[in-house]
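User: structure tokens for this one?
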Amino acid sequence: MGYKYRSTQPYDASAFTLVREEEMTYPQPKYISGRGFLHLFTKYTGLRELYMETSPDGQSWSDDRKLAGIKRPEDAQSGHYQISGQRGDTVAFFYNWHPNGNVDLRTNIYYMQTADFGQTWTNVKGEELSLPVSEVNNPGLVKEFFSQELNVYIKDMSYDAKGYPVALYLAGKGHQPGPTHGLRQWYVAHWNGSQ
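Assistant:
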């Protein structure tokens, strides 16, 4: 379970009240001026799936909406980790895929963004995605690593001066550190407006 608390007085961290208890892990709340909170998080549903919820005031919250739960027919489980960012009204995240739910085999990089408080989600080109995303090869795929048997570890997300998204990630042959799986390579995925 996850817990949301609110300070009893503005700008005062001496006392808090419980707002809500719910199933959520890896919380990534974003505040959008004039709209409220858009909260990205993960649920363990047999899969590690990505969800969102919204709130105008941090106290009343919408129902959870599933954004991604990629699973092949041959997978007993699956899952994702995400790294999110915000630029103005746009909230976005890069995420990976865990074939058969194995976090030691995390691979591929995907991207989703919303500019309307989570009502619609698009890929980087602005093409609307059908939610929840459930296919390995979907329009949000940034780069495919699965066929190369490479692991991907997304580390950070930001935006360039033009507002285009950028992700820092590592790629390598395995999850164990040291010489067993060779060196890991650092990369940047950067949308330049056309590719």
